[in-house]
Amino acid sequence: MTPFLTAIFLLGLSSGATAANFSPVFEWNELDFNWPSEASRTTALKDGTFKPENIDPRFMAVHGSRIFLSLDDTYGGIPVTLGSLPTSGASSAPPKLTPFPSWDMHGKEGDCDKLERTKGLEVDSVGRLWVLDSGGDDCYAKIWTIDLNNNDHTKIIHRFPVRRLMQDLVLDETPDGTFAYISQGIEQNVVVFSLERNQSWIVKTPEIEVFSIALSPKKDQEPRQLYLSKWYSKELYSISVAALRNGAGTENPRLIGKWTADPYRMLLNNQGTMFTALLRQNYISSWNTSQPFAEQRFHEVAGLNSGLPFTFALDQSGTLWMTVFDNKKKPRYRLLKAAVSEQSLMASPDAANAAEYGVKGRKLIDSSVFFVFLLAVAIL
Question: Among the four 52, 174, 213, 276, which has the fewest Cβ within 10 Å?
Fold first, then answer.
């Protein structure tokens, strides 16, 4: 490698994203619930309404000392699809899932005023957990809010005129109110919900079946973007949120790039780094959205065997939480965490902190460039 190329290579290492050091929190060979009684658990095992081998975490949110998980119910045997875990335990034994907000809030098929099939989760800036509920054969999909700072007060804030076609959501808090942008998994559109108006509408995305979504952070002078992944595709797209808020009937997403595999979960932090989980892959990738698209390997789990192995969330203090699911080996479930300093979008830094971050960032980059320049001169 020539001295010039060596210098450029080192500069890339100094300014690129680095992998985080994840530490284990809990491990489980089998997940279970905190049941009302042992007799109720035994009955559920016998009649097939509880099959612990089918528990599969799909979406995550974190607030304070609690982690919230949406559980997939594709294969049945899942008595509740929303549970909580503590972020730490008093004993070495891994905790059981607590049905959230309670057993009573999870209904049987056709009970439209109870939680049925929970999907995307997000906590807003005032501590409300937003829960996307895909409904069922007899019930429309809906959005719930659970006030985590007010005794977990729970209410339905909107019902959609569709059944079982909801996938993921992100929240956009603006001076004009709060909007939720929602993917339907295999539909060529984005669903938009306005909290203040209690209205929802559809913005069509021709030829793009929107599966997973992520929202860019708020930045001065930069229009906010909604990133879209296409169903069973490596392609990543973006669309302006202004078009979504305004209720435009049709919008054509812009192609950004291609991942190494099909993305099924995406997350952006408040500095613009995107984390992406990829179908049937044992690693998570990242991309600095302030730069041209370039996928980087962020975290890898050797020997992992699962179609959808990861789900993750950022908390308000800059910790990235992640579950790892393995179909074949034990422990089948792991909860990991890593300090990444960047926070969730709902905990964006204030102007003073942002300015300080900018000054420090510029000094770091300037120092890196100067170091590489001196190294190149020495090599020459």
Answer: 174
